[in-house]
Amino acid sequence: MRLLITTPLETSVFDTDTRQLTPLRMGDGEYFGSSWNERILVFGHTAVDGMDLVTWQDYRNAVVGFLRIFRRGGDEVVLSAKELVQPHQILCVDDRIVVANTGRNCLSVFDESGALERHVYLTDKQWDRNQEGRTGNHFNSLFRLEDRLYVLAHNFDRPSAVWRLTWPGLERVDVTETAGSWAHNLWPCEWGVVMCDSKRGRLIDALSGKILWESGEERVMTRGLAATDQHLFIGRTEYGGRTLRQVSDGGLWVVDRQTMRTVDRVIFPGSGTVNDVRILDGPDACHPEATALQPDEWNRFKRIKPLYAVSYGMRRRLPFHKIKARAADKFRIKWGGLKKRLGLKHRGEYDG
After folding, report:
1. Which of 221, 227, 298, 349 could form a disulfide with 285 if both were Cys (CB 3.0 to 4.6 A apart)?
2. Pick the CATH number of 2-341 from 3.90.105.10, 3.30.70.120, 2.120.10.30, 2.60.120.260
3. Average pLDDT over residues 323-335
């Protein structure tokens, strides 16, 4: 089985049999969401470095993110309008593409040609940071179940929340505050509405708060979720400041779906934090809109700039990237504290 893994610096394919992680694409800014159906294959690109998104003006200047749309069975590649800021999960549903346009604190709907149809603002907050520095909802994850669209709000230092909207109207039905923090991913299934309680490194039922699985590790996050009939694949991310997101070790937990017990743990040295996990070549219960892809289809997306290939090798073999990043983080935290006291802008600590 092959899994699609996205991190800030790369999109990669993980072979569960050989346990090899092979880079597929680097050099388009940070990576997060992807989706596909029987007609198209869609990838999101930020086109910016997330470390640069600090103030309201930074977010306004970052409206350069876009979708790259491949026609399955052909050579056509379409780029959408540049309407996205820090896009997270993408959902191909019916003949539309719905994007968690996280930096703009909204959902954005495109047609399959990449044309923007509308932005849907669920609150009066139109950016993930406002002029006073207050945070938005950080909408990040999507799941369609019949005539309802589930949307997950990370909510920063507030409890994460599940929004249910009508589909295709995208009108609010209800909002449920959860027991999770910095949450990602939603999956209604036999265990309830499964959600990554990312801050605490576990899975919970978003509605009841029941703990379904725990990593048993300190200072790790859960983010990214895929499932077969037998197993769950949960993205593993180490805590760290923004600088470390690009060079820390990522990984996966493999969990038995029937018992919710961990059966395997895989580390990706120097990959950066895991943003999302998808099954490429078979059914994925967490992403039921997707149909199985063949290797020639995902390899059409492959593009690795030479300098990024060199960096890829170095990040996996040499620790100085982490040493440098940790030193930078320590300096940033101390300097950020001083800047905060002086009333100047500074990057916040790790917020998932």
Report:
1. 227
2. 2.120.10.30
3. 50
